[in-house]
Design brief:
By secondary structure, this protein is of the alpha+beta class. It has 12 helices and 6 strands. The longest helix has 19 residues. It is elongated, with a radius of gyration of 24 Å.
């Protein structure tokens, strides 16, 4: 009769070795529940080295992006390690490619999938023994079901962008105008780091905080309240120009807003084109 392996035993083995939950369960099953023998099994497989790496800072790594064939679904993931040397190895770049490929085809909650005990997170844990550094999938996002998805990698994967456009006619998705717009928007996001796709997305508490800062700056100015209100609104407009993608100045032509770039491209593309959402990952920010 097979020995029943409890979740408590699996967790205890994981705490002692740092190996993945499924690997720990398999080792305990193979050892008939003997904890020390299970540790030996993991050591032979090179998995028990993980614990020695736990807790070490992971500020390096790469961002990976991947789209499906018709660019209606896209994923982005940040995979972290300890050194840029390891981040540039073939083994690590292969790991990043595996993570994005798995995310693109997987169903279920993204955060659960990339957690250390998740199906995708375990692949990063398994690579620790081979590459000799602590590593993990720190964050990921998947866009699907709204429109056309585009991507961009900057600085060899140190910054990655996923951007989704709504309103692009199916007949125009492969056109040069659409591809140029998608790339330009993704590069804009990478370079200018907006926080929101629309002004409506800015949380009310963020707006109130900004207003409070501006009012504080005017506190001892002696200006009438109505004048201060106008100044505050003006400064808030400047905030939107920095934080909201369509209101930013285009990196290609600072005299033109991103909204104008989109509107001009839409004349060729047809339809009303908007940015529905985007994600910008910079290595180290999610670690």
């Amino acid at each position: 009769m097979a020995t029943a392996i409890s979740a408590t035993d699996v967790k205890a083995l994981r705490d002692r070795t740092g190996a993945g939950m499924m690997d720990c369960k398999a080792a305990l099953t193979e050892s008939g529940g003997d904890m020390e023998e299970a540790i030996t099994i993991l050591r032979k497989k090179g998995m028990a080295q993980v614990a020695k790496k736990a807790g070490r800072a992971m500020k390096e790594g790469l961002v990976g992006v991947l789209l499906n064939a018709d660019a209606t679904t896209g994923v982005i993931a940040e995979v972290n390690c300890e050194s840029d040397f390891v981040a540039r190895t073939t083994d690590f770049t292969t790991l990043v490619e595996t993570v994005t490929s798995d995310l693109l085809g997987a169903a279920g909650d993204i955060d659960a999938l990339i957690a250390p005990e998740g199906a995708i997170g375990q692949k990063a844990a398994a690579a620790i023994a081979k590459l000799g550094e602590n590593m993990a999938v720190s964050r990921a996002a998947r866009f699907a079901g709204v429109g056309l998805v585009g991507s961009y990698l900057h600085m060899g994967g140190k910054i990655g962008v996923l951007v989704e456009l709504a309103g692009v006619p199916a007949s125009a998705r492969q056109s040069d105008a659409v591809q140029t717009l998608v790339r330009e928007l993704a590069m804009q996001i990478a370079a200018a780091s907006p926080s929101f796709a629309t002004r409506q997305e800015v949380p009310a508490d963020v707006i109130e905080k900004e207003k409070a800062v501006y009012r504080g700056q005017m506190e001892n100015s002696g200006k009438p309240a109505n004048v201060i209100d106008k100044i505050v609104e003006g400064k808030l407009g400047s905030f939107y120009q920095q934080a909201v993608l369509p209101e930013q100045a285009s990196i290609r032509d600072p005299k033109t807003t991103v909204a104008q770039v989109i509107a001009e491209a839409a004349k060729t593309i047809g339809g009303t084109v908007t940015v529905s959402r985007f994600a910008r990952f910079k290595v180290g920010e999610g670690a």
